[in-house]
Design a protein that fits this description.
Elements: E1 5-12, H1 17-25, E2 35-41, E3 44-49, E4 52-57, E5 68-74, H2 79-91, H3 106-118, H4 124-127, H5 129-133, H6 137-149, E6 154-155, H7 166-174, H8 191-203, E7 210-212, H9 234-241, H10 243-249, H11 252-266, H12 276-287, H13 293-306, H14 310-318, H15 323-329, H16 336-349, H17 353-365, H18 370-382, H19 387-402, E8 405-407, H20 408-424, H21 429-445, H22 449-455, H23 460-466, H24 471-481
Antiparallel strand pairs: 1-2, 1-5, 2-3, 3-4, 4-6, 7-8
Length: about 475
């Protein structure tokens, strides 16, 4: 890419919930997404939030992979002139104190900067969106996400933020004590300091709404359902049926690895474990769009059964290639049937708290984390019309919420999907405990959820009358609905 090319990076920050829930929450009107934008030019992404004008290296934003990228052509504005212009904006109309979620936000800034650089604005459907969602539960959801997201980036011009020094902002955002003083922040007009600021952004590890909860132990009278684990041994019979097909298609070393997987899964007690080569092969077979469907699904079912065992979950955690988690991150590229299988894999993987803790540590330390994809897959399952998929989603959400980790903004997104399941009553008896436990935990983690539930039409008394067995969960949260 030519560094003078101007790109609009567009991110959908509701993880699909806006499209699924907007008809209910917006009087029948559907919106395709909730959009955050940044402008990329000179290998840097610029965006605006409550900390003022912020920047990171291209590809270093929290969500990393944009939903879409729009090219506005090349700019003739020199880099130094751009930085001078940004400094002017940071001291006037785009100070952090000027930020307003709906009226003067990241998209307002992107539109302004795009016009300055190219004479073209960003799409009107993005800039007009706030008028459609403000003062709605979806608007509250956006606010939660944006508030947490903006605890991470670095303010380019902290000297213009009232009551802040550069050292204070950097230390609070990054937890680092040896960065230069506020006087040196003005050096951002040089390419060397710009690179340093981008490096600082990329090494920041703030929790962005996720971290260790102060309440790791169950509260009094709290009922915790057992983890949902899929361990159907029928896959072993399917393997025998497809034995000749596998042998004819796979390379000899691949077939040997598959046979070892079969042997391992056939034994109840083993003194050896699968290794990352086995896991990598299964994942590559599932992801290979050119492979026959019978083999892809068999590999996925093998992976489900393997991940029901703690030693295999440990292998995945320590796999430097992160084959399984990469498969999770790319789940939306798979056909629907395989997505359900991979979701079962995730459900088994997070059955142990150590897996959830590891995922969230990856979330805190990497912009495009596997945890983010796991949350998205969980929501995808909950919003599916298939009861089996809903069950999987309930299992995943329950495992995350049992972990003792705190989920501020994520709890709101998951809760919106859980409320939709509750209201539509599309869940099975097997899902009941997992669903209501998850919802009760979400309510305690985010005070926006009660209002969201009321707006969506959730009536606890009605639900209790239809399913008296849920009272052990609803009695914990009923007072919050009064």
């Amino acid at each position: 890419m030519d560094e003078s090319e101007v790109l609009v990076h567009v991110y959908e920050i509701s993880f699909g919930l806006a499209r699924a829930l907007s008809p209910m929450l917006l009087g029948g009107k559907q919106i395709d997404g909730i959009w955050h934008t940044g402008i990329v030019v000179y290998n840097t992404e610029f965006f605006f939030g409550s900390m003022g004008i912020q920047s990171c290296k291209k590809g270093g934003f929290l969500l990393k992979d944009p939903t879409s990228v729009i090219s506005l052509g090349k700019t003739e504005i020199p880099h130094e002139v751009l930085l001078d212009h940004l400094r002017e904006l940071a001291s006037t109309t785009f100070r952090g104190s000027c930020y307003h979620l709906f009226d003067h936000n990241c998209n307002t800034f992107s539109n302004e900067l795009a016009n300055f650089l190219t004479g073209k604005g960003i799409p009107a459907e993005i800039t007009n969106l706030p008028n459609e969602v403000k003062d709605t539960p979806i608007g509250a959801m956006i606010k939660q996400f944006i508030d947490s997201m903006e605890s991470r980036p670095f303010s380019m011009f902290p000297e213009f933020e009232e009551g802040n020094s550069a050292r204070g902002i950097i230390n609070s955002a990054f937890g680092i004590n040896d960065l230069p003083s506020s006087n040196s922040s003005k050096g951002l007009s040089s390419s060397a300091s710009g690179a340093a600021s981008c490096a600082a952004v990329n090494t920041e590890v703030a929790s962005c709404g996720l971290g260790m909860s102060d309440e790791r132990q169950p509260v009094a009278n709290e009922v915790i359902p057992p983890a949902l684990i899929y361990n159907d041994n029928n896959v072993l019979a399917i393997y025998q049926e497809r034995y000749d097909l596998l042998k004819g298609i796979l390379r000899p070393n691949e077939f040997q690895n598959i046979e070892e997987v079969f042997e391992y899964l056939s034994l109840q007690e083993v003194d050896w474990s699968l290794c990352r080569n086995h896991i990598s092969l299964l994942c590559s077979l599932v992801a290979d769009a050119s492979m026959r469907d019978e083999i892809r699904s068999l590999a996925g079912l093998f992976l489900v059964l393997a991940l029901s065992r703690p030693d295999v979950r440990t292998v995945c955690i320590h796999d430097s290639a992160q084959s399984f988690l990469t498969l999770i991150r790319n789940y939306n590229e798979l056909p629907h049937g395989l997505i359900s299988i991979i979701a079962k894999c995730l459900c088994n993987f997070v059955a142990e708290r150590k897996s959830v803790v590891w995922l969230l540590e990856s979330y805190n330390n990497a912009p495009n984390s596997f945890a983010e994809s796991a949350f998205s897959l969980c929501t995808h399952c909950l919003l599916d019309e298939d009861r089996d998929s809903i069950e999987i989603g309930c299992g995943i959400s329950s495992a995350f919420l049992q972990s003792g980790m705190a989920f501020g903004d994520v709890a709101l997104s998951i809760a919106a999907a859980l409320i939709e399941v509750i209201i539509s009553r599309t869940y099975s008896d097997k899902s009941e405990d997992l669903l209501w436990f998850s919802f009760s935990k979400c309510v305690k983690l985010n005070d926006q959820i009660v209002e969201l539930a009321k707006t969506m039409g959730l009536d606890l008394k009605t639900e209790e009358e239809k399913r008296p067995s849920i009272i052990k969960y609803t009695e914990i949260i009923r007072t919050l609905f009064n």
